[in-house]
């Protein structure tokens, strides 16, 4: 009898949910005269993305390109209205000037580790961001540089031992190893063995970077799921990070900061404070208090690992791909490394030396323009708010998407956008563009907190790798297709290249 009642209730809920999705409000954008493609029943405009037939990158770029005269485009994900921004003045206003109305990303996992910098909300986010920002100052990065450099050296030793004079391979395997090693060394204080991949970590990484259908439900009935404490992520992910943090903090370091001066030491200092206080937006706000539990610590370790690992590995692989295709750029970069690092600074890799690599910076930015690893800056409105320069008034919890790839390939800002051309990032050319036309790290107070770390980590890799190896296209080249099952940009068949050892005199 009880089972029958449960089944009938569940069935009724499912039917109600389906009816809501099928018949719900699809007139939302019409009231503001916002144009957009006609939504279909159930999935709205996102059928192919939700069924993982196309990547979210391709979908949003197509929508961006097919509405050249619109400042904004109205979409529906299932039944949820989403406003896609095309106009850069609006992007600037929403990301920077009106930031307080758009603090949150609307990403909820319902997971034990939800209180992390990337998905936390409102004053909890403010509290965490204030706490973690000092981790990325030049002084702190200086302290970590030797850890990253050691990873670069170990990578070279490994490559020298395993690569004959020349080889064709998927370079993602190389850049991923470097990214795992450098993030592990700096985030977890773990020195990994380059020759022995950690199978458990590989498994967890696969889970972290896979699209979960369950997460789509948050577009359908977010409040219900929150009330049910619905967990959209596999438990294995939180278990892995909680165990790992316990191992490093409690067992290896006995609860006392070591002298490695890595993220884990900084997290340990935070743990010893037992609670964080602050996060006030306005004078009248109550102080937010966040007890620093092992789960809160593990949540930060997870987000720094997740946000920092795949992003750098992918960016570096695409940079090598473009350098292989553009031999003149590779040669110019090699000459810069030779002069600035080896001739001028005797091979010493300080932050100052890395900063002097101005052409490298242009190459890196052009790579991020063509291959932004995250497709959207996501925001939800905190209250009823007017979109500047339009008649649109959003209500609380409406979604805003900023299509990074669409903007990066817009001919208005980047003529001949499919051409790899680092000159686009010469100081004069940067000055002449809208300041929001380049946003691989997002914009405003919630932009990527790890951007400076990523810049150091990636420049260091390119210095080490390119001073020992040259890259060329493989014998058979194929156009990239991207994997719709991944949350970040990833080439379905990897990034195959020919690598040849340089004769270093
Ligand atoms: C090439 C490398 C990277 C790229 C392209 C990248 C890109 C991004 C983007 C687009 C965002 C969202 C920004 C927004 O919504 O406005 C973000 C957020 C974030 N990134 Fe990165 N990232 C990179 C590397 C890293 C690294 C190395 C770390 C950590 C060591 C990191 C940690 C984070 C964190 C914690 C956030 C959330 C910040 C917050 O919500 O306050 N990222 N990143």
Explained architecture:
The chain has 505 residues and is α+β, with helices and mostly antiparallel strands. The protein has one domain (26-501): Cytochrome p450. It is built from 19 helices and eleven strands. The strands form four sheets. Strands 1-2-9-6 form a four-stranded mixed sheet. Strands 3-11-10 form a three-stranded antiparallel sheet. It is globular and about 70 Å long. The model has no long low-confidence stretch (mean pLDDT 88). The chain binds protoporphyrin IX containing FE. The site of protoporphyrin IX containing FE has 25 residues, from α13 and α19. This is unspecific monooxygenase. Its EC number is 1.14.14.1.
Record keyword descriptors for this entry.
505 residues, alpha+beta, Cytochrome p450, four-stranded mixed β-sheet, three-stranded antiparallel β-sheet, 11 strands, 10% strand, globular, binds protoporphyrin IX containing FE
| Strand line-up of the largest beta sheet | 1-2-9-6
Determine the CATH superfamily: Cytochrome P450
How many individual domains?
1
- The share of residues in extended strands comes to 5-15%
CATH level-3 fold name: Cytochrome p450
Kindly state the number of beta strands: 11
Give the distinct bound molecules. Answer: protoporphyrin IX containing FE
Biggest sheet architecture: 4 strands, mixed
**Overall form:** globular
| Mean pLDDT reading | 88
| Helical residue percent band | 40-55%
Strand-pairing-aware structural class: alpha+beta
InterPro entries: Cyt_P450 (IPR001128), Cyt_P450_CS (IPR017972), Cyt_P450_E_grp-I (IPR002401), Cyt_P450_sf (IPR036396), Insect_CytP450_Detox (IPR050476)
Protein name: unspecific monooxygenase
Subcellular location: Endoplasmic reticulum membrane; Microsome membrane
Enzyme class: oxidoreductase
């Amino acid at each position: 009898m009880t089972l029958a009642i449960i089944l009938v209730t569940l069935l009724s809920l499912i039917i109600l949910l389906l009816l809501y999705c099928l018949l719900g409000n699809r007139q939302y954008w019409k009231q503001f005269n916002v144009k957009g493609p006609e939504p279909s029943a159930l999935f709205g405009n996102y059928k192919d993305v939700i069924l993982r037939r196309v990547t979210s990158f391709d979908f949003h770029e197509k929508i961006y390109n097919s509405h050249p005269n619109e400042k904004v485009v109205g979409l529906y994900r299932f039944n949820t209205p989403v406003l896609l921004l095309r106009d850069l003045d609006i992007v600037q206003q929403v990301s920077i000037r009106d930031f307080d109305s758009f603090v949150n990303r609307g990403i909820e996992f319902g997971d034990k580790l939800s209180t992390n910098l990337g998905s936390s909300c409102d004053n909890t986010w403010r509290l965490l961001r204030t706490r973690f920002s000092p981790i990325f100052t030049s002084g702190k990065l200086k302290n970590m540089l030797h850890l990253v450099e050691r990873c670069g050296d170990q990578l070279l030793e490994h490559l020298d031992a395993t690569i004959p004079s020349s080889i064709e391979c998927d370079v993602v395997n190389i850049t991923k190893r470097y990214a795992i090693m450098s993030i592990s060394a700096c985030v977890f204080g773990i020195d990994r063995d380059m020759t022995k991949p950690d199978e458990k970590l590989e498994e967890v990484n696969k889970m972290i970077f896979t699209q979960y259908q369950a997460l789509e439900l948050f577009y359908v009935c977010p409040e219900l799921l929150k009330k049910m404490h619905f967990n959209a992520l596999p438990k294995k992910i939180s278990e892995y990070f909680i165990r790992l943090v316990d191992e490093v903090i409690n067992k290896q370091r006995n609860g006392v900061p070591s002298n490695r001066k890595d993220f884990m030491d900084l997290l340990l200092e935070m743990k010893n404070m037992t609670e964080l206080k602050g996060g006030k937006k306005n004078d009248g706000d109550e102080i937010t208090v966040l007890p620093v539990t092992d789960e809160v610590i593990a949540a930060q370790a997870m987000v720094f690992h997740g946000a920092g690992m795949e992003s750098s590995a992918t960016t570096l692989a695409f940079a090598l791909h473009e350098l292989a295709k553009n031999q003149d750029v590779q040669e110019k970069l090699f000459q810069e490394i030779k002069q600035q690092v080896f001739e001028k600074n005797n091979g010493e890799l300080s932050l100052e030396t890395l900063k002097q690599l101005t052409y490298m910076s242009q190459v890196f930015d052009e790579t991020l323009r063509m291959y932004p690893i995250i497709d959207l800056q996501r925001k939800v409105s905190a209250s009823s708010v007017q979109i500047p320069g339009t008649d649109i008034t959003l209500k609380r919890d409406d979604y805003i998407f900023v299509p990074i790839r669409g903007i990066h390939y817009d001919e208005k800002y980047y003529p001949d956008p499919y051409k790899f051309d680092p000159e686009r990032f010469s100081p004069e050319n940067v000055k002449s563009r809208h300041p929001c036309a380049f946003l691989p790290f997002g914009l405003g107070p919630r932009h990527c907190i790890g951007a400076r770390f990523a810049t150091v980590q990636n420049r260091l890799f390119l210095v080490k790798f390119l001073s020992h190896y040259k890259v060329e296209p493989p014998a058979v080249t194929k156009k990239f297709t991207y994997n719709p099952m991944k949350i970040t940009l990833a080439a379905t068949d990897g990034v195959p290249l020919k690598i040849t050892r340089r004769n270093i005199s």
